[in-house]
Amino acid sequence: MDKEKLITKIMKECEADGEPITREEAEEMAEMEIKANGIKNYTQSDVEKKPKKKREVKKDPTKISFLKSLEEWLTNTSVSDIIILNEQREISFKIDNDTYSLVLTKHRPPKKGV
């Protein structure tokens, strides 16, 4: 914005507020405003970030009992080193010298109307 236009604008605004100012005061205010427009003010808030709450995983008794049954069944076969890595999700075992793992996934029901 042109400095003269800014000075005129400031004088009109102050007069409308009921506090008329001199041209010198308006010039000083215009210079400060022009300088302030060139300055970028990057500040960081003092608000501390809340620590994230650890999400509590709900136990699914169906998945737990299924993996236990699978473990029992695998014990009666030629499988060795059976380990339940996650009681609701994963089981690991060896067949001969190869290691395998099974991951159990429970799928959500389909959305209605889609």
What's the quick description here?
This protein has helices spanning 3-16, 23-38, 61-75; strands at 79-86, 90-95, 98-103. It has a 3-stranded antiparallel sheet with strand order 1-2-3, covered by helices on one side.
Describe this structure in words.
With about 110 residues, the chain is α+β, with helices and mostly antiparallel strands. Among the domains are: about 5-35, no CATH class; about 60-105, no CATH class. Helix content is about 40%, strand content about 20%. The protein is built from three helices and three strands. The chain has helices at about 5-15, 25-40, 60-75; strands at about 80-85, 90-95, 100-105. It has a three-stranded antiparallel sheet with strand order 1-2-3, with helices on one face. A hairpin with a 3-residue loop joins strand 1 and strand 2. The radius of gyration is 36 Å and the shape is rod-shaped. It starts with a helix and ends in an 11-residue tail after the last strand. The mean pLDDT is about 85.
Percent strand equals 15-25%
Low-confidence stretches: none
Number of helices: 3
* Shape designation: rod-shaped
Q: How confident is the prediction overall: mean pLDDT? A: 86
Major sheet: arrangement of strands: 1-2-3
Total strands: the figure is 3
